[in-house]
Specification:
The complex is a heterotrimer of chains A (83), B (202) and C (94). Chain B is built from seven helices and five strands. Chain B is α/β, with parallel strands linked by helices and 202 residues long. In chain B, α2 packs antiparallel against α3. Chain C has one domain. By secondary structure, chain C is mainly α. Chain C is flat, with a radius of gyration of 16 Å. In chain C, α1 runs antiparallel to α2. The N and C termini of chain C lie far apart (60 Å). Classes of the chains: A mainly alpha (83), B alpha/beta (202), C mainly alpha (94).
């Protein structure tokens, strides 16, 4: 099961690299959306791996709330570009 | 982050898995990327990424409540409030007359585009505020509602052959210095208006 | 048997993740990247969660919630990001 998590970390490194090298704010937001989903799925995997119920609950909450926060942030940044 | 928690690193008393170290190493990596950002909005997005990575690290270390707090407060609430704060504070408000604003003359649009370019290089926004007459414009500058005014020079004043068409008065000294150094447009004059003797400095 | 099936689901999900994330690096437009990301990333994540569900059927309520959240929120998020990024670009070009 360990190699699955290592592969997931490698997949997580790609959007982190993208967020570092790209200068457009929407590309960074895209990378952030990818990272937010990937980290919460990784939390779910860890919770199943260790049979840890609270971490699983927290992972699902972060999955839904993180997406909501992302939409809020996208609207705020769109307003910034308007004026 | 705020609640006292005992970090249970490993429930089974085994060796700590290798992926734990790799995931923890992501945290300083994200922090380094955050430190080297120049644009404040880009830095905020990277801070949100750092928050996501940090909550993953806390969850892997077994602190579910800390991870939840980091995701809710550190990623969502703080970033939203900071975007609102940065957006409303990093702005240059330029007061203009309504007749100038509706004129759509080529010189004027060129001047505004140039101002916007200079101001954007310093990560500020340019906001145009229009006033009905010149008294209201002067009062707004005195009351510190706006940072600068841009008005047309009347033709009898500019009898010389210089092609100055507009005059821009700025009351913030640092902004005036930036404009003096970087604005390369011959159609406007730049004046610094010192208002600091009337009230204490902000 | 179930174990092999769940592992293969998880590995397929990780392959989908890489497939969806690699277009992120490069000079393509935001909408192109968003398309590959929203389709392949969401499908990969759902496949991984399905694999986890086969591993521990006891926690089915939690993992089902994760599946529903992924399916709904990621779709909505794709629409919101596309709307925000495209309308921001048009006002900048004006």
């Amino acid at each position: 099961m360990d190699f699955i998590l290592i592969a997931m970390i490698l997949a997580l490194l790609i959007p982190i690299y993208e967020a570092w090298q790209d200068n457009d704010i929407w590309q960074k937001m895209l990378a952030f959306a990818s990272i937010a989903t990937k980290t919460s799925i990784m939390m779910l995997v860890v919770s199943v791996l260790r049979d840890d119920w609270p971490i699983g609950v927290v992972a699902v909450i972060i999955l839904s709330v993180g997406n909501a926060g992302l939409m809020l942030l996208a609207h705020l940044i769109r307003r910034m570009n308007e004026i | 982050m705020f609640w006292p928690t005992v970090l249970v690193v490993e429930k089974q008393h085994k060796m700590i898995d290798i992926y734990t170290y790799v995931i923890i190493a992501l945290l300083p990596l994200a922090a380094l990327i955050l430190v080297f950002q120049v644009n404040p909005y880009h830095a905020l997005v990277i801070r949100a990424i750092l928050g996501a990575v940090a909550s993953l690290v806390y969850a892997v270390l077994g602190a579910a409540d800390v991870a939840l707090t980091e995701a809710l407060v550190g990623t969502m609430l703080a970033i939203t409030l900071y975007v609102v704060a940065v957006r409303s504070s990093l702005v240059m408000r330029l007061g203009i007359l309504e007749e100038v604003a509706t004129e759509k003359e080529q010189y004027f649009t060129e001047l505004i585009a140039n101002l916007r370019q200079v101001v954007n290089e310093h990560h500020l926004r340019l906001e145009l505020v229009s006033y009905p007459n010149s008294e209201a414009l002067d009062n707004a500058l005195k009351n510190k509602e706006i940072h600068a005014t841009c008005t047309k020079i009347s033709p009898q004043d500019s009898e010389s052959e210089h092609q100055f068409i507009y005059q821009t008065a700025i009351r913030v000294h640092h902004l005036f210095e930036i404009m003096q150094n970087e604005l390369t447009l011959p159609t406007t004059t730049l004046n610094y208006i010192n208002l600091s003797h009337q009230e204490d400095k902000h | 048997m179930t174990n092999i099936f769940s592992y293969s689901l998880i590995i397929i999900g990780i392959i989908f993740w890489f497939w969806g994330t690699f277009p992120l690096v490069g000079n393509r437009s935001v909408l192109f990247k968003l398309h590959s990301l929203s389709v392949a990333d969401t499908l990969g994540s759902m496949s991984i969660v399905m694999g986890l569900l086969l591993q521990i059927p006891r926690e089915w309520s939690l993992l089902l919630l994760a599946l529903i959240t992924l399916a709904i929120w990621n779709t909505v998020l794709g629409y919101v990001l596309a709307y925000c990024s495209s309308s921001g670009e048009t006002t900048q070009n004006d």
